[in-house]
Amino acid sequence: MTTKPAISCVALLGLLSTGCSRHLSNENLHQVHDDMSIKEVESILGPPTTWDDHVQIPRQTTVKVTRYDYIQDGKTVELIFYDGKLVGGAGAITGTFAN
């Protein structure tokens, strides 16, 4: 009787761990558009593989620049955010994923 709950826990952990990772495709990449927030992008693509925050000071204003990299199967997609918003539409996205 105690083996069933143990097996159920292992199965549940397996489902939870696979639910956290996403297979990135050009289809979900095309859902990302200009002026989306970081949270909106993450809701579609999931968390980035790597990211970098740095501050850029052009003239008199301070702009927070964030770069997100999504890496899968040796391919990288880079997204650039200014003050938490994706900029440049499709131009802000460099790279593609294999479907």
Summary keywords:
single chain, 99 residues, alpha+beta, 5-stranded antiparallel beta sheet, disordered N terminus
Can you put this structure into words, describing what you see?
The relative contact order is 0.18. Helix content is 30%, strand content 29%. It has three helices and five strands. Strands 1, 2, 3, 4 and 5 form a five-stranded antiparallel beta sheet that branches. It starts with a helix and ends in a 5-residue tail after the last strand. The longest helix is centred in the first third of the chain and has 18 residues. The protein has 99 residues and is an alpha+beta fold.
The share of residues in helices is 25-40%
Q: What's the count of strands?
A: 5
Query: Looking at the structure, what is the overall shape?
Result: elongated
**What radius of gyration results from the CA coordinates?**
18 Å
The secondary structure category is alpha+beta
Low-confidence stretches: 1-20
On the 0-100 scale, what is the average pLDDT?
Answer: 73
Main sheet attributes: strand count, strand direction, barrel closure:
5 strands, antiparallel
Strand fraction band? Answer: 25-35%
Q: What is the succession of H and E elements?
A: HHHEEEEE
Cα separation of the termini = 44 Å
Give the helix tally: 3
